Amino acid sequence: NSHIPVITIDGPTASGKGTVAARVADRLGYHLLDSGALYRLTALSAMRAGVALDDEQGVAALAQELPASFSNGDIFLAGEEVGALIRAEEVGNNASKIAAIPSVRQALYALQLGFRKAPGLVADGRDMGTVIFPNARLKVFLTASVEARAERRYKQLIGKGISANMEGLLADLQARDERDTHRTVAPLVPAEGAYILDTSDMTVDEAVEQVLHWHTLL
Ligand code: CDP
Ligand code: CDP
């Protein structure tokens, strides 16, 4: 299925990858892979099963058998809808810890390749363009200043009625950036040939239009 077009959208936390990827997939009628959700589901599984986050074999075994399914924007773990649950900052932070384990990344590899189906795929994460789909047709690296990203997360949380504190969010974001950028496996770096889009001063619509514009050039 290597002829099926893939658009990869990688970037740091709260850069807007998820939002932009979903909108681009919708506009093109493509499938969507939210790869971060797979790491979040694995983290949630470990938390629930009482498997320690540094138990590499234990966590990898959960990832290998991950009972994940996706349908119309809903995310299921063993049949239970957990879309809102896995968005919690605690799950995100734990996801970033288990994502540094090579055997966990290996366990999720084949599952991710399976999302490449006709007519095309938009995949968002950290290593979509570098490791999972190195032969993607279009690669985008979405970024924004850490302040802009913290503000976006803040608004997202407040919008959901969750209390948040800006300083705590900034610190969490910086810790996550640090872990994701400096780990030895699949670190967060722009893929070769990736278009870099700094969205600090852009709206979601503008970012979506830019990605669609690059897509038409290919
Ligand atoms: O939305 P946000 O960027 O905060 O997180 P996410 O994309 O849902 O990913 C959660 C965590 O999973 C990240 O902090 C990464 O450490 C990890 N991840 C990864 O390592 N590789 C991916 N392709 C996607 C996510
Ligand atoms: O997936 P990632 O963690 O990169 O970000 P997200 O979950 O898509 O969240 C980004 C938030 O910032 C959403 O609430 C967007 O509406 C907002 N936003 C954006 O994504 N892009 C902009 N250019 C401006 C705001």
Pick out its properties.
alpha/beta; five-stranded parallel β-sheet; 218 residues; binds cytidine-5'-diphosphate; 8 strands; globular; three-stranded antiparallel β-sheet
Characterise this structure.
With 218 residues, the chain is of the alpha/beta class. It is 49% helix and 16% strand. It is built from nine helices and eight strands. The protein has a five-stranded parallel β-sheet with strand order 2-6-1-7-8. Strands 3-4-5 form a three-stranded antiparallel β-sheet, covered by helices on one side. A hairpin with a 2-residue loop joins strand 3 and strand 4. The radius of gyration is 16 Å and the shape is globular. The relative contact order is 0.22. Bound molecules: cytidine-5'-diphosphate (2 copies). One cytidine-5'-diphosphate (CDP) binds next to helix 1, helix 7 and helix 9. One cytidine-5'-diphosphate binds next to helix 1, helix 7 and helix 9.
Mean pLDDT across the residues is 95
Q: State the share of residues found in helices, binned by percent.
A: 40-55%
Strand content: 15-25%
Strand order of the largest sheet: 2-6-1-7-8
Number of strands: 8
Number of helices: 9
Low-confidence segments: none
Question: Which molecules are bound besides the chains?
Answer: cytidine-5'-diphosphate
Overall shape: it is: globular
